[in-house]
Write a structure and sequence with these properties.
6 helices
Length: about 170
Amino acid sequence: MDWVKYIYGFIVILILQLLCCEFISVWPVLYIAVIPLIVVILPSSVSTYIVMLLGFAIGLLTDALSDGVLGLNAASCTLAGAFKNMITEPMRRYDIQSDEFNMNSGEFRSGKLVVLLALCYLLFFTAYVLIDGAGVAGWLYILLRIVLNVIVNTAIAYLLIKLWIRRFF
């Protein structure tokens, strides 16, 4: 695996996230998160522990360099990293012939990409919203916030992958 391009991707995703934290505040309920993309772009050959560690690192860097709660993005991204290989395993088993799962390959269809992104963002925002607002708001508000964030961020991540990540990786 070519680690240089993944380090570059890590840095670019971190910068994009910091720019989103600083300059994009659409609505207090909506949080634009691009850092779960680091979890998504890593190939399946990378150990779950390494994916979790990288998710924790990018989350902690985001928390430390922005004005957020320290550990909020780190915990959420770590959870998404912990379940990434569980999410991709059924996709590999039934449709993709190679053992190496690579979401950037021609074997990976757009429908599966949307499902992968939606599930990763669902894990990320379930942890994020529950840690951020548990006990403060009602369950309906928490559910609305999770669903809204998953839909919007999945669309943004899909566009980023189509426009930038697939061309680079």
